[in-house]
From TrEMBL:
It comes from Metabacillus halosaccharovorans. PANTHER family: FERRIC ENTEROBACTIN TRANSPORT PROTEIN FEPE (PTHR32309:SF13), TYROSINE-PROTEIN KINASE (PTHR32309). Its EC number is 2.7.10.2. GO terms for molecular function: kinase activity. Keywords: ATP-binding, Kinase, Nucleotide-binding, Transferase, Tyrosine-protein kinase. It is an enzyme of class 2 (transferase). It catalyses: L-tyrosyl-[protein] + ATP = O-phospho-L-tyrosyl-[protein] + ADP + H(+). This is non-specific protein-tyrosine kinase. Pfam families: AAA_31. Transmembrane segments: none annotated. Belongs to the CpsD/CapB family. Residues 41-172 form the AAA domain.
Amino acid sequence: MTTPKSPIAEQFRTIRTNIQFSNVDDELQTMIVTSSGPAEGKSTTTANLAVVFAQQGKRVLLIDADLRKPTVHYTFRTENHIGLSNVLTRQTSLEEAVTVTAQDKLWVLPSGPIPPNPSELLGSKGMNNLLEQAKREYDVIILDTPPVLAVTDAQVLSNLADGVVLVVSSGKTETDAAKKAKELLESAKSKILGVVLNNKKVQDSQYYYYYGGK
């Protein structure tokens, strides 16, 4: 997490603003954050975006929809005994699975136990129902999803969200991989809000940039 006055925090506030302006004609309430491959800073980006939206005064729900390698509960130091997988299998309700965080106006829905059929659960009617309920209770819903090139989960969820933010890592993400991820998301009829360039070194600091559009 970042301190409010740090350069990185300021970059995330800029990203938040650019995301909001990228979708001025339509309501932007649900978004997924993904990457082309693993270890590109996707989950860190997701967590910080959730924080800056909450700092804006919006009621934010961060959903760990990475049912293969979940990390949100580590980031926010919450339990993960009950979460998204339990809600989707009707073992518990959304209200019972959501946990509070130290950040005001930010709630977390952890992944819950890792299921044997993540793609099927995420593409189920239950997932759509969960998001519809969440939209009635929260202003912004952000979903952390697995990398696009690894599994189909992000593509499945992109159909349910208002937009997608793609994270790429400077010096790590190959151009062809980023292009392929973009193509797969577009083929799933998702709306790409923009790309966050992660780990770009400027004067020995870690910065994040946002490039709107396609």
